[in-house]
Every structure is written in C-alpha cells, then in structure tokens.
Amino acid sequence: MKRILILGLSLGLLWSGCKKESFDDIAFAEGAAAPDKLSAMFDITQDNTGKVSIYPNGEGMAYYLVHFGDGTQQPQRVSPGRNVEHVYAEGNYNVRILGIGVNGLTTEVTQPLTVSFKAPENLDFTATIDPSNPFRVNISATADYETVFRVYFGEEEDEEPVSLLEGGTASYTYAQTGTYTIRVVALSGGQASTELSKEITIVNPLLLPLDFENSTLNYEWINFGGGVVTLVDNPHVNPGNPSTKVGQMIKYAPEPWGGSVITLSQPIDFSANKIFRMKVYSPRAGATVLLKVENISDGGIFYELQQPVTKANEWEDLVFDFSAINTSNSYQKVVLIFDLGTPGDGSANFTFLFDDIRLVNSLPPTDAPISLPVTFDLDNVDYTVTDFGGNSSEDAIDPTNASNNVKKTTKGNGAEVWAGTTIGTPSGFPQKIPFTATATKMSVRVYSPAAGIPVLLKVEDHTDGGIFVEKLATTTVANAWETLEFDFNTGTPALNLSNNYDKASIFFDFGTNGNGKVFYWDDVQMVGAGGGNDVLALPLSFESATLAYDFVNFDGGQVTIIDNPVSGGSNTSSKVGRMVKNAGQPWGGAFLSLAAPIDFSVKKTFTMKVYSPRVGAKVLLKVENQNDGGIAFERELSTSKAGEWETLSFDYSAINTANSYQKIVLIFDLGTPGDGSANFTWYFDDITLN
Length: 690
Hints:
The protein is mainly beta. Helix content is about 5%, strand content about 45%. It contains two helices and 46 strands. The strands form eleven sheets. The protein has a five-stranded antiparallel beta sheet, with no helix packed on it. The N terminus is likely disordered.
C-alpha cells in the first residue's frame, strides 16, 4: 500500500503540473543543433581510495548519462558544467557517456579509465609544433598505471597545469620564441606520481612576406661583393610606405655584382603566386634592381629578373613577374643586387631602401578608368579623353596654380561647330551618372579666353546615342576660373531617370567653327556631391555656401569651416576645415554624418589634403555606421610636411563592403591630449574617395 500511495502521489503531482503549464510547443528544440564534441576528463584522489571525478563535456547538451563501467547498473545523470564522483577498485574500465541534446538526439563516447594505487611507470610524451602555428605545441603522453596526466608548459611561473588523458592532446600557444621546459606529471590513485621533462625550442620561421617588422624573427642577410644590408628605422615614413622598419642596402666597392642574400625557413611556394612585389626607395631614377631566387644548396638552380627604378627619392612598388619560373625546382634563398654591372662607392648615391618583399598572384591593376568626380589629380587613373570634330585636348598645368593638373582643349581653326570632347573613352564612365530626383545638376570648372562663350554639356547612354540630354551654359569671365552649372532637369530632351546616362561630353564655343580658342577645364562632378548645394556627400570640399557641414565635436576636438588661411601650393581652395585639439581626451576629434551611406563598391582609397604645424603628427580617418559605432573601419597616417599642404592617402581596400558606413570621423594625434595651441591646430580639405 505504501508503494501504491507514493505512485499515486507522483501521478497526482504530474497531473497537477500538466494543468498549470503546457509544454506542447517544442519548436525551439526541433531547430536546435545536434549534440556534438562529446568528451570526458577524469581526476583521481591520490589517497588509495579509488575516488574518481568524471567531468563530461560537449556542445548542445541538455544532460549526460554516465555509465561507470564497473558493473554498476544504473547510470548517473549529470547536468552540463557539473561532475560526478565514483569509487572504483583497482582495474581498467571503459566509462561510457551518453550526451542527450535538447532536441532528444543523442551521442556517446567511451573513455578508457585506469585505476591503480601503484606509481605510474614507463612515462613518455611527445611535443610537436603545430603545422599551422609555429608558436603552438601539441602534447600527447603514455604511461602504465596512470589515470590522468598534468602538463606544465614552462612559460609562466606558478602556472596551472592542463589535464590530459592518454590518447588525447593538450595544446598551448607560446607568446615568444625561446627554449622552454615542458613537464608532464602522471598521476594514479596512489600517493606517488611520476614525471618527465623535455625541452622544446619555439622558433618563428622566416617566410614571405618580408616586412622586417617582427621582433621575434632573425632577418639574417649574408652580404657579398660589397653589398651591405642592415635593418633600419624607416627614414621616409609616408603614405607610400608607412612601415616602421625597412631594409637598407649600401653598395660598396669592389664588385659590380655586390649584393646580399637571405635564406628562408622553407622553400618558396610558387604553386599559386608567381608575382613578386617589393617597395624601393632609390636616390636616383634609372637604377636597376635584380631580384633572384636560388636553391638552398645549388646556386645553379635559380631564377632572376631585373627592373629599373623610375622614381628618385620616393617609395616605388616594383613588380617582378616570375610566371615563367620552373616550379619543379626548389628555391629557398632571396638575392638582391642593386645596379648590377656598376661597382658601388658607399655614398648616398649607392644607398637604397627596400621593404615588403611579397609574393602575389596577379599583376597590379592598370590605371582605373575615368569616373566622377573628375579631378585630373589622382595617380593610377586613366584620364584619357576623346576629341572629335577638330578638337585637341592634352594634360596641362593650371595657369593660376602650378600644382594643379587640368585639361587643356584647343578648338582648332576650322573645327566643326559641334566639335567636342568626351570625358573618357567612347565607352564612357564605368558607372551611370548618379542622377536622382533631387540631384540633377553637374558642374565643370572652366577657364575661358572670353566671357559670353557658350559651353554645352551632354550626357548620354554610350550604347545608344539616341538617349541623351544636353544643357547649355555661358562663361561670364575671361582668363579666370569659374564654375559652370548644368541642370539637366531643364535640359533637352527631358531627363528620364530610368535611362542609363553613363557618358558625358563637353563642347566649347558650341555653334561656332573653331578659330584656335584655348580652354582649360577641371573638376567635373555632380553638384551636391561635395561642391554643390543639394546633398552632403563625398567629395567634401567645403566650398558650398548652402550645405551645412555640421561636424559634431567630441572630447576636446573642435572643427570649424573657415576661409583658407594658408592658400597656396597644392591647395588654393577658398574654404577649408580647421581642427583645433583642445585639452580633453587623447582621442578628441569630430565627425560628420553624410546624407547617404558611402559607396565602397568600386573606390576604396581616401585622399585628404592636410596642413600640419609639424612633421610626424598622426591623422586618423575613420568611417562608421550611422547607428552603430561598433561597425567601423579606420586608417592612420603621419604627416611628412610642416607648414605646407600635403595630400594623404588612406588605403581602405580591406574594408567590409557588406556593412553600411555614413559617418566620417577625424582624430589628429590620437593618444595625445591637445592644448588648443598652434601646435595642435590643423587644416584639412578635399576629402575624396578614389
């Protein structure tokens, strides 16, 4: 009767619980992952009692069932993160563990267990370097009569050991190179333990790329014939090479083939990448650079190419196409020879810097096609234009500013009344012109020989010349720059936003046969895209009288838009931004929210003109998500000039274009609080995405 009463009570409680709450919805469990990575760890007391603690572990587990393997009939249920204790007699057991997932699926594992009161015997272990990480070591151990191993890796004092079972692996990642003593202690159920120690040496392998920045690597160059390589602090830190450390080659007498060689830790893998790139700073253009790879033991097995330097006293990224190399050979040495055929004299004229020797899988891209905004100032952009009807255009220097690049178009004698110039090739721009319902204007800066000259701007579909809109404007000044605006919303025929307008052509002195007039022109762009009056977007030139450049200042940074107080050189703009860093936080700066997210689908390099009070001031340019500051990307450069304008280039090629970025953040001298003085006052201008 007692048993029945208890059963009835249990059923009553169960029935009562069912009435209170329903658990019919198990959709959450149906979508759960299957239990996985089931394992177990043992611990044993060293007191001859045979008490073993069992720690089950896994992913997606609701609970575990531990079958002790010693004849005990009922398994023990264990919740995640808990353990169970069991007393064993001496012997060998197979502990079976079932993991039950929240979705009812199960997985199981069987773990051998040895319980002995004797001291472990025949202890041995192996320590191997992980092939994927030269700082990571993997330990496995064996012994007789042991229950568990304790592993000490020897890098820290008073370290907590890692537990290890026979057949398993214990891993550890060292912070530094060096020789360490690994100690493994084998424990049984008795008081006595057995231990074994071995040394392991952690060496960082010397592999490509060679950037000379790693303090744990031994960049051991072997000099020959008068070449001498040393690693030095980069004496020319700039956007072309912001590295801290670089290689320096000084070529002395006597040999014309004097150079240096470095041996890598393993053969170079040419299976996928066969293009070498190397940054070089040469005292003169025309100097040659030979890059050679050799077999580690047979100098007769090699491949080499030689390239000329085209720039003097600035960083240049040379390209060596090793596509024809015999990949069945093994190459482990890298050889550098500057000015092969000419003995050096150890002077500045024979002192070269080099950096970032790397292997890539493609040649550098050719110049990018011309696209809006068109400034004629960017490197690696093909500013080809296409003349027709008797026009003749060429690259030129701004007649009022020797540091500004422009186009010069001559409408020659007898040129057609419709003679013009397509801005780019006949294929037009790589993207359609971004007309919207509120952005229908384009502008061109023009330097005309007379006032009253008609200038026509035409946009069209490059695949169908019948789809076009054209708009006429008239010059108002002679021999001076002015910005002409063309509102295609009032053009002919009517602007149709569904059309693909991806080509633009400009016609000077439209309607009149050519008579030799010369026109300069520059800065073709959408009005409202930095220089107009519709929307706040890139590029930011701060010239608009109607746009609100509402920088939000934080923690000591203070931005205002002012008249350019240092007009000249590479920046003759009327308006610029001024950042004064006052006392506050070392990260004091300012940010500006644009009207729409920045389009990084094609262009991924920011340029910004900066006027700094000193060389070496840091400039951080950051973009952020409009609502989540944790979604951001940033680059930091240092100024290389003081008291004059320079253009900094920020490489954003690694940005995650799947994210949305709408804020521009500027921080000068990050890490140093300002004091509001002239030493903490910078000017900036023309923030452009290229």
